[in-house]
Specification:
The complex is a heterodimer of chains A (257) and B (218).
Chain A lengths: L5 H6 L1 H5 L5 H13 L1 H21 L7 H14 L6 H7 L3 H9 L12 H12 L5 E2 L3 H8 L17 E12 L2 E12 L2 E9 L9 E5 L2 E8 L2 E8 L2 E7 L3 H11 L1
Antiparallel strand pairs in A: 1-2, 2-3, 3-4, 4-8, 5-6, 6-7, 7-8
Chain B lengths: L1 H17 L4 H12 L2 H17 L10 H17 L11 H10 L13 H7 L3 H9 L2 H12 L4 H8 L3 H25 L8 H7 L1 H11 L4
The chains are: A alpha+beta (257), B mainly alpha (218).
The structure holds zinc ion.
């Protein structure tokens, strides 16, 4: 086992202090601390400083009560169908109960003219959900989805600069509730690219702009700085989301169409 | 249809019991990031509305606080960051200056006998003020680690960056915090004098020449 030097110790003092190391790594640091007075003094100082600051930093700042009331009202509104507003107000139900009651009548409302699945595609792209099938082989990922979804998934085969990372089951919002979907994620340099596949019957294409790429119709949507490209293959829609510039994005799409 | 109705209702109860208790923590972090109660309230509202909309994507049993902070952090980075007034934040030159001046741990050492007065006079509102002056990427790392107790891995997922980046931002963020407080204590005479080594460092070329001229050993 190689001995830890002082500069390593000092560089990695934070993760050591924060309990980020495993048992074996910890032991190396413990051993260095036992033999090196200089590092021990620095470590002791840093630990004291962290310990003194922490209670100040971690002191809770509760949400003011009126802000909390407004929050609950907003949450209730988010699920409140307009026709029922008056009826509920007349009954003067307390806000939490009101919210519970309204949740029963949840309607999916498209935001700013976008079809709900566009918003969903962008949000799922941004959240980077963990994969259930980590694999770089498209065939393996497709096989994993078999039997789990009411349609067959064909993960797009992009060019060699786009690396498949894996997939998971997901859902996507539609005008008539949620649909099951396949979520497939790829890496392109430091960027990522996500694909959501779902059945395309009665698909709302509101807000898109059409382009023809490799002779295929592709709908483009821009939302919060992300581009979503949608194309169909038989009964399945593939929504590809990325933060790449449009032309780079299009040349990647070309390789899969 | 009926099954759907009950499903929704149960979802709302779950949300109320699981997500709403995190509202205070979200608000505390939002306030330190945005430094404006109205903006902080807006950010928390938007975070929880979004969480409610995507509640079906939350896997029960996984860490709800990490899930909500990931949503809030992303909203902050993508939409709110531009709203915060940057004028009170340390600029690049000040950051470099502080990091360089206090590059050695020995330079920010507070003598044992002065620790108590340091704690009493410096640790308090001045810590929060120093935190709020940190450039936003350092402030986020310090907030998520030291205010909210998230692990490096959880923070890396929230910021969409490697664990090593979290470590270096946290390291520099904490150092900047320490350097600012040390400087504050120094300016107010709570602790005394910059360490002797620093003076020696500044004059080293001159000292070196003198030593050469004298032809002597150090
Ligand atoms: Zn050492």
């Amino acid at each position: 086992m190689s001995r830890l030097c002082c500069s390593d110790f000092r560089q990695f003092m934070d993760p050591y202090l924060d309990g980020e190391f495993d048992v074996r790594e910890r032991a190396e640091f413990d051993a260095h601390l036992a033999i090196c007075g200089d590092c021990r003094r620095h470590y002791e100082e840093r630990a004291w400083f962290q310990q003194s600051l922490r209670p100040v930093l971690a002191k809770p700042v509760p949400m003011p009560p009126d802000a909390r009331v407004r929050l609950r009202a907003k949450l209730a509104m988010a699920t409140k169908p307009s026709g029922l507003k008056l009826w509920i107000r007349r009954l003067a139900i307390p806000v939490p109960l009101l919210a519970a009651a309204c949740a029963v009548f949840l309607v999916v409302t498209p935001l700013a003219g976008f079809a709900p699945w566009v918003t969903d595609a962008v949000d799922q792209h941004r959240l980077t959900l963990p994969v259930e099938v980590p694999s770089s082989m498209a065939d393996d990922v497709d096989a994993w989805f078999e039997g789990k979804l009411p349609f067959r998934v064909e993960s797009p085969r992009f060019d060699e600069n786009v690396h498949l990372l894996g997939g998971r089951l997901s859902r996507i919002g539609g005008t008539a509730g949620y649909r099951s979907a396949a979520y497939i994620i790829y890496g392109v340099g430091r960027h990522k690219l996500s694909v959501i596949a779902f059945e395309n019957r009665d698909l709302d294409l509101n807000g898109g702009r059409s382009r023809v790429i490799q002779g295929k119709d592709v709908e483009f949507y821009e939302r919060n700085g992300y581009l979503v490209a949608l194309y169909n293959r038989g009964p399945v829609a593939y929504a590809v989301t990325s933060d790449l510039p449009e032309e780079e994005f299009v040349s990647i799409l070309k390789s899969a169409l | 249809m009926l099954k759907g109705l009950f499903g929704r209702k149960k979802e709302h109860v779950d949300f109320e019991e699981t997500a709403m208790p995190v509202a205070d923590a979200l608000y505390g972090a939002a306030l330190r990031l945005l430094r404006d109660p109205q903006l902080a309230e807006d950010l928390v509202q938007e975070t929880l509305l979004r969480a409610y909309r995507f509640w079906h994507q939350f896997e029960p049993g996984t860490n709800i606080k990490a899930w909500l902070f990931r949503i809030q952090t992303n909203l902050f980075i993508n939409h709110y960051r531009k709203h915060q007034g940057e004028q009170k934040v340390l600029d690049d030159r000040q950051v470099d200056d502080l990091l360089e001046r206090y590059s050695e741990p020995a330079q920010v050492t507070i003598p044992l006998d002065l620790r108590e007065s340091f704690l009493k006079e410096v640790v308090g509102d001045e810590v929060l003020a120093a935190l709020e002056r940190l450039p936003v990427e350092f402030r986020l790392a310090v907030l998520l680690a030291d205010m909210q107790d998230f692990s490096y891995k959880e923070i890396a997922e929230m910021l969409d960056c490697p664990v090593g980046t979290v470590m270096s931002r946290l390291h520099r963020g904490r150092k900047l915090l320490q350097a600012q407080l040390y400087q504050y204590a120094l300016d107010r005479g709570i602790i005394s004098g910059p360490p002797a080594e620093e003076e020696a460092e500044v004059e080293s070329l001159e000292a070196f020449r003198q030593r050469k001229a004298a032809g002597g050993e150090r």
